[in-house]
Amino acid sequence: MKPAPFDYVRCATVPEALSALAGDEGAKLIAGGQSLVPLMALRLARPTLLVDVNDLGLDDVTAGPEGVRIGACTRHRRLERDPVIAAQAPLLHEAAGLIGYPAIRARGTIGGSIAHADPVAELPAVLVAARGSVVARGVGGTREIAAADLFTGFLDTTLAADEIVVEVRLPATGPRAGAAFCEWAPREGDFAVAGIGVVLERGDDGGCSAVGAAACGIGSVPLDCSELLAPVLGEGAASDGLLREVARSVRRGAPGDDDRADLLGLLAARAVLRAFERSGASGEVAA
Question: Read out DSSP for 27-78?
Fold first, then answer.
């Protein structure tokens, strides 16, 4: 099939893009187009106007004491290769390399992926696990939306129709932080059947002092697994017994069919083990 007819405008500034959005109820933003264009080709999406935001300068990456700030039009390819992101946002760095194929990562953007809110996508789960947020700008001003308040359902968010995501923010992690994203897909490049991201902090005693975790492919929004893991990871190293309890806890808390819940439990145990190994205290990881 071919897309339904539409108009197109390439904007040079954020105010110009906001004006275009406000002037047409059927307008949609486009940057990488890796989610929207396939839907248009199937006529599952029929925008009357495409507002191109590639020239708005929303591709800066900056790091500071409070964390890392990433422009919404930053490509997935940069997320997996930028040394600042690798150092300051390792969970995002690893997850970005799992998205689709190289051609998709070269075009797709972080803001587009998060705003699209596909429940099988990696980056919304990363935002929830890392306790991140997005900065949205609309005709009424600018606001910051925490990940916990952003995703409301299948391909649905609390973003208003006339708002543009301009920035993604991830908080700083401590010196003994570890992160890992693990998923399973039938073939490389396919959407994952299930996946989970884990970021944890280790205390001076080697135990886990804080954990954030979220899964994709389970339910209509990213599944926050932090409260499932926090009681399990309170103390000790990543022993076989602890990893088995991680798998059991996540499996019990995962909605949906038993096979997918079992898979998510196994992926959670693998992600926790890798996060412990990367936390700066790999010698404390028990066999």
Answer: EEEESS-TTHHHHHHTTS---SEEEE-TTS----EEEETTEEEEETT-BHHH
